[in-house]
Here is the input.
Amino acid sequence: MAGTGWPVVLEDGDVVLRPLRLRDAAAWWELRAANVSWLAPWEATSPDGVPPVRSFPSLVRDLNRQGRSGQALPFALEHDGRLAGQVTVGGITWGAMRSAHVGYWLDGRLAGRGIMPRAVAMAVDHCFFAVGLHRIEVNIRPENRPSLRVVEKLGLRPEGERLRYLHIDGAWRDHLAFAVTSEEVPQGLVARWRSSRGA
Here is the structure.
């Protein structure tokens, strides 16, 4: 099996993707508390009711284990030097498929500023050009307008609806699927995003 080269730090101006660290605990909990109502309708939940985060140290250990094993790229997102959210490349599949999916969340106070499209584009470019993946997909609830704007801004290709795809906010929810392959962005997704903004 190939690897992700974890830990990895990606930088593009005031946006940085890096591993989540134990010393992020206070900032992470504060950010999550400030965004409870903003994030709750879109958060993955466990069908058996197990809390998603039992302790911050166990979360950090688990994410870094996934990174080292080549299963995920679990980035913390910094904006202007402050923790602002997370971008996770998960479900990495090697072999003939070489694909993954991307999930993300951002401090609601920073939404609409182009931070998340750039962060997702940075992660996708890293997957294509450094890790060697071929296809990335993003799955979003149809009601999640801010998240849909991210894939629209990036020009990801719609692939249809996935019924009862993921357990979100206490129930199995339908999602819309979007994807991009390395052939579609030979210059990179960051470059395409910047070009679309210039237009």
